[in-house]
Write a structure and sequence with these properties.
mainly alpha; Tetracycline Repressor, domain 2; 10 helices; about 65% helix; Arc Repressor Mutant, subunit A
Length: about 200
């Protein structure tokens, strides 16, 4: 006699609708405490989610942080300013929300430095989300200025595109000072523009 075995019921489908809130809460805690000081309990409390929910989705703190960094908002390269001058374009990018967002990113970057040895893949995530988008925007503005004949055609675009992001990171990580509008404008006026100025004008 064959006994019919009931078909196994499918497991409950995971609800990922709260992932953005949890990942954003992760970034907030990371910016405040750094990776070493951050706990899953803190993230769960900030996101108003159960700790078990987080562990089902992210088995370790490292995986949660890597996911959170990978989901950060990127620069919108389709709507860069076009004022007619390189200085005008660069200054136009320094808006209060953009500066605040950049400052948060820098705090997050300083918070994950201790992770880099254990999680080398995090370096790629940091570069792709925090450094490369602004560098890509700078490259576009610099090449546009070259095409206008405004700056030296032989200037090192790759090097100069990383100038402001690198100095901002050093200021935040090493000097523990805020990156504000005055600081960013001083990089433009005192370092970048003199470096690209045409000598035949």
């Amino acid at each position: 006699m064959t006994i019919a075995v009931p078909a196994a019921k499918p497991g409950r489908k995971r609800d990922h609708s709260r992932d953005p809130e949890i990942l954003d809460a992760t970034l907030d805690v990371l910016a405040e405490t750094g990776y070493d000081g951050m706990t899953i309990d803190q993230v769960a409390a900030r996101a108003k989610a159960g700790k078990a929910t987080l562990y089902r989705r992210w088995p370790s703190k490292g995986e949660l942080v890597i996911d959170a960094i990978g989901c950060m908002k990127k620069e919108d390269l389709a709507s860069l300013p076009d004022t007619g001058t390189l200085r005008g374009d660069l200054v136009a990018m320094i808006k209060t929300p953009a500066v605040q967002d950049a400052q948060r990113k820098l705090k997050i970057m300083s918070g994950v430095v201790s992770m880099l040895d254990k999680h080398p893949e995090l370096s790629d995530a940091i570069r792709a989300v925090m450094i490369e988008p602004r560098a890509a925007a700078n490259r576009i503005l610099l090449r546009r200025a070259i095409d206008r004949g405004e700056i030296r055609p032989d200037c090192n675009v790759e090097f100069l595109a990383l100038l402001a992001p690198s100095m901002a990171f050093y200021r935040t990580l090493m000097l523990r000072q805020p990156v504000d509008r005055d600081f960013l404008v001083s990089i433009i006026d005192e370092i970048l523009l003199p470096a690209v100025r045409r000598t035949d004008s």
